[in-house]
Amino acid sequence: MSSGAVRARRPPSPPPSYHQSVPRFPPKEGHLDADERRAAASLGYVPSRKSGHASGGYNITPGEWKLLVLLVVAASAVRLFRISRPDSVVFDEVHFGKFASRYIKTRYFVDVHPPLAKLLITLAAFVFGFDGHFDFAEIAKVYENTPYVAMRMVPATLGITTIPLAYLTLRGLDCRATTALLASFFLIFENSLITQSRHILLDSPLVFFTALTVFFWTGFCNEDKHEPFTDRWWGWLTLTGLSLGAVVSSKWVGLFTIATVGLGTIRQLWTLLGDLRVPPRLWIKHFYARALCLILVPVMFYMAMFQIHFLILENSGEGDGFMSAEFQHTLGGRSMADTYADIAIGSRVTIRHVNTQGGYLHSHAHNYPGGSQQQQVTLYPHIDENNDWRIINATQDNHPETDWMNFHELVYIEPGSRIRLRHLTTEKNLHSHDFRPPVSEVDFQNEVSAYGMPGFSGDMNDDWIVEIEKGSKRDSLSNRRVRTLGTQFRLRHALTGCYLFSHKVKLPTWGFEQQEVTCNKNAVMANSLWTIESSDHPHLPSDAPKVNYRKLGFFDKFFELQQVMWQTNAGLTDRHTFDSRPSSWPLLRRGINFWVKDQRQIYLIGNPMIWWLSTASVVGYVALRGFLILRAQRGYKDFENTKVVKYDTLCGFLFMGWGLHYFPFFLMGRQLFLHHYLPALYFAILLLCAVFDFLTSTFVRVGVSKSRRCSQFSLSGISLSLARWRMGTHGQRKNVTKLNG
Amino acid sequence: MADSSPRLRHRRPSSQHEPLPTIDDDDDQPPQDAGSPTQFELLLESPEASMTVVSILTALAFALRFYKINHPDQVVFDEVHFGKFAAYYILREYYFDVHPPFAKLLFGLAGWFVGFDGHFNFENIGDNYTDNHVPYVGMRALPAILGSLTVPVVYGIMKESGYGTVISAFSASLILLDNAHVAQSRLILLDATLIFFLSLTMYSYVRFRKLRYLPFSFEWWTWLIATGIFMACAWGSKVNGILAVFAIGIAVLVDLWDLLDIRKNPSIEQFWRHFAARAIGLIVIPVIVYLSFFWIHFAILTHSGTGDSFMSPRFQESLAGNELLMNSIELRYYDTITLRHKDTKVFLHSHPERYPMRYDDGRISSQGQQVTGYGHADENNWWQIVPTKALPETGRGRIVRHGDVIQLLHSTTQTYLLTHDVASPLMPTNQEFTTWARDDLSRYNDTLFQLHLNGAHEGEPVRSKSGYLRLVHVPTKVSLWTHRDQLPDWAFRQQEVNGDKNPMDRSAIWYVDEITSAGDGEDVSVRSTPQQAKTPKPLGFFTKFFELQLLMLQHNAGLTASHPYASVPVNWPFLLSGISFWTQTEGQKQIYLIGNLIGWWTCALALSLYVGILGADLLAKRRGIDPIPLAVRNRLWNSAGFFVVVWFIHYFPFFLMSRQLFIHHYLPSHLASALIAGAVLHFLLSETIEYPISVRGHSTRLRRRQWAELGTRGPIIVVVFFIALFAAFVYMAPLTYGTPGLDGETSTLSDCYHPGRFTSLLSRTSSMIAGQKAGGMKGLKF
């Protein structure tokens, strides 16, 4: 009921047709009186639209451009000061530097972050001639033959560019120049942003793209209020979409930025929906335009980044183990030659575990230290001749070695076939018996070993019964008999009824940390499925049908990688010495030790004055807003005051940005660090400045001079606190007296 | 809406009954001219018909819940816990559990009433009751009665909310014929109590809301206080009963927000009176009731029992027969003691081996003697307490007291414990502990430690076993601390001990385990027995309460181990998995907690319909179309909205919990969703509502009575649905009652909604039970 009442008094934005009927004069002619205006009209002056509305609502005076240049110079001075020091690896440069070297060597790797920021760093490294041979092995390792300054320049440049963006954004949000200047100073002298910008880290690109998105979005909103569906309107909207794609391609935290823009869009559409003068068709047009630019464009951008990622990383590398067999097969150095589709008694095969990426059924000439002390059977992820097994018929008692050799008709492996698997290099059979396995020592698990000797055909414990679980859709025969790559089957131990099984449990060092293989009486279906990856049979003619892995398209690879990234990300739950929970961030309770060497230290910590002021402004806004809501319920008409409405809209948007970049972290179980707060901090600082704008415009009515004095005062305070903290940021000596002495 | 509000305003002055502004509701727009009800409808809505229906439903509820209640005569699932707790109440032995005591007190009372002597300890799932002469049927009867009574209460909630007999019967039958509710009510489990009191809370609140035009009348107060009391009972039954408090809290906040609206209530004093009344009825009284449960709990459990070891030493000393009470001895200087860490139970240990000069990460040690944590008794755990002040020759002056500064002398190597600003082997942030030769006084200051007894007053003596203490280093203010990480081979993989820079760390707590030899050479056991009377030391109720409450919360959060039947909340409304309570391989019998498939899917469908209806209505309203009459919309928002709040509050918080979760946590939400299903069915069947349902106040206008028009199709649909529901119930009943019948046919049924899991269910469950017999798992909690 209340919304209806309000709507009656304050109509929402009028439709385009309404705009055009309003006469619009250039600002300079704004104070012509009625007579002069009539005279001007008779002289043929047409109300001009162009000069009435700057693109994106950014009315920047020439003087301000000069100011912006000065700001960039100041930001560069702070961020580039001795950027070459320290000349050793700092904190997560361990990872991101390493990824750059992997890109340059085109070796496949898996990381939890999307590729854009890493690609930018790689580009810089590549242009400046990095050969990828430096390994970034540990923090404080001294750089050799690495253009690390160029690589650090990428985050630094983006960090510098963030500052004019913040200025322009606040101007676009209809704040005064003084306020925007104050925001720039806050950002220039924010120690945590400086520290992040000076090293090869992803957070500076993230904050930059977040700022860029907010900038474009503000511009779009201003255009939308002015007149929709102009070229400029489309331009700003598309740029917002591209920038959204960029932010989410830097880090998944960018999804929070998408949520911020998304909520803003929903709000716009809801307002339009309530405007009964907007016909449904026009509303649909609004809807589709936004869906196109804010959903489709970012998705395309994101996928394009991954396409580049896949194109560069074409060779096998340390990330292979995360991916499925089909995926690995697409990487150079891991591709497999076509292999015979038919499997029969006598085939030489490699057997792969389906559910885990542990690899192939493997045995080697080392024995278990406990249990039966027989030869180990494990899963091994790499191609090796110890992965080769021969399928032998277990039902033929006489010379099972030879019968398939002389018997020229192929005997296929069908459900119920009773087979033995002979390990070729050691001439032992796959064997299981009533011993507990070395790691999973529980009742329902039996040990699996390789047992036998050359010439010995084996005992009953070597017998396994094939059960076909499912075949491939591509190969109809694979449902009826075991076929290479098509059939997923289980192997049941003939005597004890347990199933050949493996799970993500590693053997200790005596087993070379390969994956454990057991025989499980209560086997989970997924972990007891096996498939044959390659096969060879002497009696098969060379023109017999061959198969190979399915060629993966981009989308298969893309979705598989997304899933792997998600799982890896969720799995990052180990404690870290410097991790922290979100509740400690707004108060800056602790930082991160980035680098220590020779009595010098780099410690990530914010500028407490900026940090606490921004938190205070968030709390203040919430308290004031709550108070105003209570007053409204008791009949006060605060929300009809244009000033309250203006600042409420402004602060509400920034508060929403802050909240959406902060609260979701509470739901995350993974390890979190202080730098995850930085995007939220950006919004909090803008909110702080909006509050400043409100306070100075409300309480300091004496004039501009006083508000300027206010900002000067706070600036000097910030510079002071920066001076105290910069030691940490720039890696200065820990102990000042030592510097003097 | 835009056009309805001006009409409202216009109409009011013309009303003759309105001398004063009143608390009014948006309901005062009658939906339309509903025709007079038919004879059949009148008959259905008559009190006699209503009574008949509810009697039949209740009788059926009792029949279904008491059917074969004596089967199985074995301990099932969490009866392991809750049966045991009842026994402890009867034996008056102290125990510890994460749940508040109300429901367990009721079980204790039931057990006492039917003559259970408490001498059966419900050790394992599958233990036989008959052989051990346990009157288990009497104890199971309690939840069965409460579970059966839930059905008429649900009927009452719907009826009082203004839905017809038919709709109310529909909602009640969703609970009546639900296999999960039945299975849960037939065993010694807490959920039936929780659900019963939750439904009573909702019923009382609905009655209270209906009296909103007669504020501060006697009935108004009665229902307000009843809401508060029942809410406290739900809260006191189980930890998640606190959600009932939140649900009512939200409803009250919405109510108060309306009262704050200046158009409805111009006087702010009136608002504060309402506020104060609700604070008394829904905060003060429930808290008193909740505390009184704990008061009774402590008053009954006065003897030492299994729960002792969870509690602080002071708490333990308030229990008769407690080991601490019997064995604790005051410490004197020059006594040799062993010091044990509270959380990891290792002894403070040292041996002549030294720290290596350089660790693997390149940091450098002091190369001092190693100080570690060691799990086994050993002479190297012996430390002598050396004073730092002059002592009298004999007497009480030699007693070690809270706040004293002491040195600890390692007996075998004759060195003093010391810590200094050198990083510890594993944690660069913490200080290394080492020892220093006895005769070298150069590091005297670094060997000083201050004793802080937890919660002690000035000058309280330190006692073995009973006092938790911190050892704070005097010069650097770090606390002696240890954690589970092991040192490498050079320290024999013993636990690292270091100095924690947060001296108030909760895990930096130690206690004196034993006095190995007394300083003055006499026998330690002689020392204290005569002086101390071994009577329990009383402890204040609130001290006990807060300690227990804190422990309950901590342990509840700590229940994170995985469990074969734990499930994720997303699956609950769709009934994707259940819990095997009990299996008997011979005869293929099993009790499997799973709801009525038709019932649960109906509820899930109703929820989505509700969201759909309101969503479509909101959109339409935004475009200036009014598809639903105002009164019907208000009924959907206010009445069904209340049920949705209850549903949501009892469901959503589980998404945020990382502890193990089971499908029975959804049962309170399921009850709410059954109510929503009734409301949605009413909306689908009829465009009219019964109106007004609130009791008329002194200054409210007379409004013409409206009838909800259901026609004859309403009863027919509900009867058909009831039959379908009953068929599904009977079909799944073997799983609920643990009767034979789990042949291939039924397991195919189970496979329908439980793909791939059911096949190995029997074997898994039997191995689980085997594990429990081996003393491994102890069922599950919550």
TrEMBL record, chain A:
Q: Just give the chief location class.
A: endoplasmic reticulum
Establish whether keyword Transmembrane is in the entry: yes
- Provide the transmembrane region boundaries: 116-137, 149-170, 200-220, 240-266, 287-306, 609-630, 650-668, 680-704
Segments for region (Disordered): 1-31
Instruction: Supply the name of the protein.
Output: Dolichyl-phosphate-mannose--protein mannosyltransferase
Molecular function terms from GO: dolichyl-phosphate-mannose-protein mannosyltransferase activity
Q: How does it sit in the membrane?
A: Multi-pass membrane protein
Part of which pathway?
A: Protein modification; protein glycosylation
For this protein, the Enzyme Commission number is 2.4.1.109
What SUPFAM superfamilies would the database entry show? Answer: MIR domain
Query: Its biological function?
Result: Transfers mannose from Dol-P-mannose to Ser or Thr residues on proteins.
Gene Ontology cellular-component terms for this entry are:
dolichyl-phosphate-mannose-protein mannosyltransferase complex
Family to which the UniProt record says this protein belongs: Belongs to the glycosyltransferase 39 family.
> According to its UniProt record, where is this protein located?
Endoplasmic reticulum membrane
Q: Check the record and name the PROSITE patterns matching this protein.
A: MIR (PS50919)
List UniProt keywords, sorted A-Z: Endoplasmic reticulum, Glycoprotein, Glycosyltransferase, Membrane, Repeat, Transferase, Transmembrane, Transmembrane helix
Pfam family, any one? PMT_4TMC
Which species expresses this protein natively? Answer: Multifurca ochricompacta
Matching entries from SMART domains are given as:
MIR
From TrEMBL, chain B:
Similarity comment text for this entry:
Belongs to the glycosyltransferase 39 family.
EC numbers:
2.4.1.109
PROSITE patterns recorded = MIR (PS50919)
- Do the record's keywords include Transit peptide? no
What UniProt keywords apply to this chain's record, in alphabetical order? Endoplasmic reticulum, Glycoprotein, Glycosyltransferase, Membrane, Repeat, Transferase, Transmembrane, Transmembrane helix
The record lists the membrane-crossing segments as: 102-122, 134-155, 162-181, 187-206, 218-237, 243-260, 280-301, 598-619, 640-658, 670-693, 714-733
| Name of a matching Pfam family | PMT
Residues covered by region (Disordered): 1-37
Matching entries from CDD domains are given as: beta-trefoil_MIR_PMT4-like
According to its UniProt record, in which pathway does this protein act?
Protein modification; protein glycosylation
Known catalytic reactions: a di-trans,poly-cis-dolichyl beta-D-mannosyl phosphate + L-seryl-[protein] = 3-O-(alpha-D-mannosyl)-L-seryl-[protein] + a di-trans,poly-cis-dolichyl phosphate + H(+); a di-trans,poly-cis-dolichyl beta-D-mannosyl phosphate + L-threonyl-[protein] = 3-O-(alpha-D-mannosyl)-L-threonyl-[protein] + a di-trans,poly-cis-dolichyl phosphate + H(+)
| Protein purpose | Transfers mannose from Dol-P-mannose to Ser or Thr residues on proteins.
Asked if the Swiss-Prot or TrEMBL record annotates the protein with the keyword Endoplasmic reticulum, the reply is yes
Task: Name the GO cellular-component terms.
Answer: endoplasmic reticulum membrane
Listed GO MF terms: dolichyl-phosphate-mannose-protein mannosyltransferase activity
Which protein is depicted? Dolichyl-phosphate-mannose--protein mannosyltransferase
**Which compartments is it annotated to reside in?**
Endoplasmic reticulum membrane
Question: Which residue intervals define the domain MIR in the entry?
Answer: 328-388, 397-454, 459-515
How is the protein disposed in the membrane?
A: Multi-pass membrane protein
